[in-house]
Amino acid sequence: MKPFPESDHCDGRSFHNPASYRLSPPLQVPPERPSVEPDFTSILSWQRSLRLRWPNDVPTFSPEPFPELAPGEISASFINHSSFLIRIGRAGERPLAILTDPILSERCSPFRHFGPRRVVPPGLAFDAIPAIDIILVSHCHYDHLDRPTLRRFGRRDRPLCLAPLGNRRHLRGLGFSAVATLDWWQEFRFDPITITAIPALHGSARTPFDQNRALWSGFHIDTGRKRLIFAGDTAHGHHWAEISQRLGAPDLALLPIGAYEPISLMQPVHMTPEQAVEAAMLLEARHAVAMHFGTFQLTDEGYWEPGGRLERCLKSMGRDLSWFSLPERGQSLRAP
C-alpha cells in the first residue's frame, strides 16, 4: 500500500512539482549551465565555494510593540529568514499566535559546528515571543524545519503543528500537542480561522537518501475578515494565479526574495526579487512583505542585493515602495 494519495504532484511514494505550474518558457540561463532540479549532494558541493562572503556586523533593529488588533485583524512580526509571528485578534481573548518556520538556532544545519551560520540575531528573542498556539512548517529543509527551535516552543507552549504530507516523522518528539499533515488545498479549521495548505514549487530532503519523500507547501490563513498567505519556499510559477482564484486575493502576502544565485541551480526552487513582485501582482495582494533574506548565507548573491533589487523593481514599475515591504527584524506589519 502506498503511503500517500496519488495526484498531479505525488506518485504515492514521493513528490514532485507539477509541470502545469512551471513557467513556460522558463527564465533564460546560459546554455552551458542548464537549469536542473538541485539535489542534496549538488547543494552541499556548491555551498563549499560561495563567491561573496556576507558581513558579520550588520546593525540590529529594536523590536516594536505588538499592535492592538480588533477581532479578525492580522499582524505579522518579522523574526528572521522565513520566521514570522502572526497574531490574529479575537474578541475577549488574547490574540491567536502563529509561528511560521521558526528558526532561532545559530546555524541551519544538521551539524552543530558546520553549515550556514546566522549573521544577525533574531528580531524577537525566544522570551519575547508570546505563547504560541500553532506552528506552521512549510517543508523539511534545515533552514525551515529547525528541530532545536521547534523543541523549545513545543516544550514551553504545547502548540499544534501543521505541515505538509510526509513531514510527521521529522516532527516527532518535539512536544507538540498534535501534528497534522496536509496535502495541497486541504483545510484545517482552528476557531476562528481556516488554514489551507497551498502549492509551492520546491523540493525536500534532510539527508542524501530522502529526496522529495515529504511534501512542501505554503499556507493560506483566512480569519473571515482578513486573508494572509505565507508562501513558504518556492520558485515562480503558475500556482499564484490558481491560489488567488481559489482562495481570493490576500490582504497580506509573505513572499521569499532571496537565495536565487546561481540562477542555473536556484531557478527551479527560489524566486528573484523581481519574480516576487510579479507573484504579488498575480495574487492581487493588497500588501506584500519580503522574507527569506539576510539571515543565513545560503547562496551567492550579496547581503544587500535582494533588498536593492526589490526597491529598483518597484520604482521601475511605478509601484509605491510601501506596497511591498522589506521588513526590519522585529518589525510588525498590520494587514491593510
TrEMBL record:
Task: Please note every region of biased composition (Basic and acidic residues).
Answer: 1-14
Gene3D superfamilies according to UniProt:
Ribonuclease Z/Hydroxyacylglutathione hydrolase-like
Region Disordered, annotated ranges: 1-34
> Where in the numbering of this chain does the Metallo-beta-lactamase domain appear?
98-293
Q: State the name under which the record lists this protein.
A: MBL fold metallo-hydrolase
Native source species: Asaia spathodeae
